[in-house]
Amino acid sequence: MALESLVGLVVGWLVSTFAIWIALKILPGKQKRESLTGAALTAIIGALIFWFFYSIFRIPILSGILAFFVWLYALRKLQGVGWLGALALAILIYIINGIFSLFLPTLL
């Protein structure tokens, strides 16, 4: 059971890292951490933000809204973009992850 959870965590992190990396490449401009390593750091920080808020606040809507705004702030700081740039990145990441979710279950 613990091994399955660990594998799921690692696969989710890798998929998110790749989605963030693609979004950074698509978004025009020069982000600070456009590398795969920067995308991996951004993915792990985003995961920790959402985990923290969902652990503290048991109300999904409230946790999701709070985590989203903190995630935007983290994107601003990590990637050196403004609020609109962070929002554009978040939307691109969401869309790319959605596309991956269509194909990933069939691959595993």
Description:
- The protein has helices at 2-26, 36-56, 60-79, 83-107.
- The protein has four helices and no strands.
- It is globular.
- It has one domain.
- Helix 1 (2-26) packs across helix 2.
- Helix content is 84%, strand content 0%.
Describe the main β-sheet briefly: none
Shape: globular
Percent range for helical residues?
over 70%
Strand content: under 5%
Order of helices and strands: HHHH
Label the structural class.
mainly alpha
The residue-averaged pLDDT reads 87
The domain tally reads: 1
N- to C-terminal distance:
17 Å
Quaternary state, please? Answer: single chain
The total count of strands amounts to 0
- Rg over CA atoms: 14 Å
Low-confidence runs of at least 5 consecutive residues: none
Q: Helical region count?
A: 4
Question: In summary, what is this structure?
Answer:
The protein is 84% helix and 0% strand. The chain has helices at 2-26, 36-56, 60-79, 83-107.
